[in-house]
Amino acid sequence: MNTKYINLIDQSFYFPTEEFKLDDNELKFHDIDLMGLIEQYGAPLKFSYLPKISDNINRAKKWFADAIEKHDYKGTYNYCYCTKSSHFKHVLDEALKNDIHIETSSAFDINIVQKLKESGKISDKTFVLCNGFKRDQYIKNISDLINGGHQNCVPIIDNYEELDLLTAGINGDFKVGIRIASEEEPKFEFYTSRLGIGYKNIVPFYEDQIKNNDQVELKMLHFFINTGIRDNAYYWNELIKCLKVYTRLKKICPTLDSLNIGGGFPIKNSLAFDYDYAYMVDEILNQIKITCDEADVPVPHIFTEFGSFTVGESGGAIYEVLYQKQQNDREKWNMINSSFITTLPDTWAISKRFIMLPINRWDEEYERVLLGGLTCDSDDYYNSEQHSNAIYLPRFKKEKPLYIGFFNTGAYQETIGGYGGLQHCLIPQPKHILIDKDEDGNITTRIFNEQQKAEDLLKILGYEYN
Questions:
Q1: Which of 25, 60, 134, 208 is deepest in the core (most CB within 10 A)?
Q2: What is the domain-level CATH number for residue 404?
Q3: How far does CA 144 lie from the centroid of its chain?
Q4: Is there a contact between 272 and 357 (Cβ–Cβ < 8 Å)?
Q5: What pLDDT does residue 343 have?
């Protein structure tokens, strides 16, 4: 009988994949020796594989370049990275190797922009698109950036008050965009996004506050779908509505020349993931061109804001299965040596799926299990609700350690989990390593952050530690 774990994967998925392969019954991820990492650094362990960031950026650039050429599209394409997905310096340093732009969402983001400028990572030619609901400090930081000569800083207007606040803080002329408040999917608890200005109010807002304001130049319309760019009726319907607003606005606003199609590409969350990125890019540009041609207006320059797509597939987490608890006649709990709530908070908060695979023992029999974290919280688990299928792993054997990996975890998990701060039940943040390639293409590793110690947490809590 085919009872080994490798047999299960072979009959369920196409394996190996471009990321995963086996070497002597041990899993490799982009040719990284994961068991070697465990032997060197221990587990639990988080890692960031930096070359994947550049790889995804350049894949997207090629999809857009191909579509622009195919459709004889007269606009340009600009790739922006959403810093909120991961603000870490090593992430920005890698992303900015690829001639891209950035999108910000809060006041402190602009402080990062200033640091990047000081280090020569970006210049005044780099577009900085400022999204989010803007209050005093954010307005001040944006104003300081523009007043310092960064004319390609483009605040995206989110509400009716922001333009007056920016006008008061900025010396001289500046560019802005307007965010459309898109309608949410029917399953949402509300009808319209809380962010941006409603479809019907865009043109009146322009005529009332921008048209006769000599200090302000409207350059961009920002279209964002919370669920991302997906091939469904909802997405295409919202895109067409957006394009109709764009063409109507373009006819009365000659300076408008850019469309930001925010809402990112999905990333792989299982071995069965299937998404035709090239087709989606091709069809988006096709729809834009058709609509603009019908309205007899020039096509816009295209901006995208990819956060998870940029950094998500670069991240991973590795745990050891410490113990198995047979809680009833059907449920076996494999307890990991960390916590899902603290290290992969999206599994707990929004039942997000990640690729989960064992690192070793692929040639052994498998069993169906549930995965539990170390906290005393009943929600600290990962099961088939989050996973694409029931969870099967090589059988637990106390004398033979089993290691499991979660992959494509590089977006949001650190910031949502409160990286470097307090963790639920004071479970420490794991060691974090950075994986790169040298000039000869050899894998290199270095420690970014050690596992938290008791004194780190007690200091935050206000205790003296001796």
A1: 134
A2: 2.40.37.10
A3: 28
A4: no
A5: 95
Number of domains comprising the chain: 2
pLDDT beneath 50, residues of the chain: 386-387
Q: What is the pLDDT of residue 240?
A: 93
Residues 6+ apart with CB under 8 A from 265: 60, 228, 229, 275, 277, 280, 306, 308, 309
- 406 and 344 inside one domain: yes
E strands, 237-297, in order: 258-262
β-pair type (431-437, 381-382):
unpaired
* Final residue of a structural domain among 306, 327, 362: 306
Strand, helix or coil for residue 397: strand
Do 28 and 124 belong to one domain?
A: no
User: 138 and 31: one domain?
Assistant: no
The predicted structure's pLDDT at residue 72: 97
- Tell me the residue ranges of DSSP E strands in 376-461: 381-382, 392-394, 402-407, 431-437, 443-449
Statement to judge: residues 41 and 174 lie in one domain: no
217 forms beta bridges with: 175
Q: What is the extent of the structural domain holding 367?
A: 5-50+315-461
pLDDT at 181: 82
3-state DSSP assignment of residue 221: strand
Contact present, 431 and 447 (Cβ < 8 Å): yes
402 and 393 in contact (C-beta within 8 Å)?
A: yes
Cis peptide before 204 (omega within 30 of 0): no
Model pTM above 0.85: yes
Q: In 21-135, which ranges are continuous DSSP H helix?
A: 34-41, 51-70, 89-95, 107-118
The C-alpha angle 162, 159, 176, rounded to 5 degrees, equals 60
Is residue 58 in some structural domain? no
Return the exposure string of 218-244: e unless at least 16 CB atoms fall within 10 Å of the residue's CB, then b.
bbbbbbbbebbbbeeebbeebbeebbe
129-174 confidence digits (pLDDT tens): 999 999 999 999 999 999 999 999 999 999 989 999 999 999 999 9
* Cβ–Cβ < 8 Å for 334, 324: yes
State yes or no: cis peptide before 428, omega within 30 of 0.
no
